Description:
This protein has 341 residues and is an alpha+beta fold. It has helices at residues 6-10, 56-69, 115-132, 159-167, 177-190, 194-198, 238-248, 254-269, 276-302, 308-336, and strands at residues 23-26, 33-40, 43-50, 81-82, 91-92, 98-103, 202-205, 214-216, 222-225, 232-235. 43% of the residues lie in helices and 13% in strands.
Amino acid sequence: MKTNNDEQLARLLPYWMPDGEGILRSGASGMNNTTRLVDSRDGRYVLRVYETHRDESKVGFELAVLKQLNTLPLTFRVPTPVDSRSGESYIRTEDGKVAVLFRYIEGERPSLSTGVAQYSFGQTTALLTRALEQIVTGTKPAYPPYYELDQASDVYYALSDALKFCKEPPEPFLDLAEALGKIGDWLAAYRTRLPQLQAMPHQLIHGDLNRTNMLSAEDGRITAVLDFEFVTRDLRVMEPAVALSDLIFGDLDEEAIWPAAAAFIEGYAAEFRLSREETDVLPLLIQLRRCDVFLHFLYRYWDGIDSADIVIGQILAAKASLDWFRQHGHRLAALCAGLSD
Length: 341
């Protein structure tokens, strides 16, 4: 259950502000967290309450990465966490959740519908890869790499649990048995590629680059990257895979997908080049992103966080993406080859 009680949230403000003089205002909250804008005498802030976990190590790792990124000469902004008046990086809410205050960043969510925005998206993704390569942390990331397809939550779920769900769907998912069968078949086949993936270049990645986690200027240029909640050590090539996946399967119509993907790849290649081995597996990882989103919400459903309707939507989206790849995979692979030396 989300922390939507503003009176409860307001009682957190004195931890950061004298007498808690901040005024709460509605902000855009995603599916994972509760967010409020806070206006105070010295500026605007963003109060964030983490809803999917209460794990201090996850939040602590995210904040440590952000504090280091804020010391680098970036061409875009990233969130700046604000320590409490007593020097703490985060605060516990009355119901035990973790809350963090960030400085507000001006900007609008990009539409990613123009060539300028798509090129800037690719360029920003590459520049973030270069920046995160420089970050050194003294602790282990809380989240596993995408390719492990296991996720820690209140209960630990393994890929075998999801495969069983796909093979023997319970109510209310029986009508989606065919779609789940195709997803399960893809996941089982994907498992055979794990040794190859595990041997490829790794580094820290943002892991969730999409339009909802960025801000842009009026001309479409990306000016900020937000929401580093899932930052972790993963395949270097997974960063553009996530970004391209969300670009291809976002709001664009079929005819607009190809020039958008080409603009992204041109922007990325202008700042960073991948190895041929990495570009060869990029289409596979784009599919992995779509299936991982399904698994993410399936695990949330098992944890009692999301409804069956949300999982059903993700099942249909994953199945649609696999169907798309059967038709267009070769064309996409040829386009991705432009990212290698």
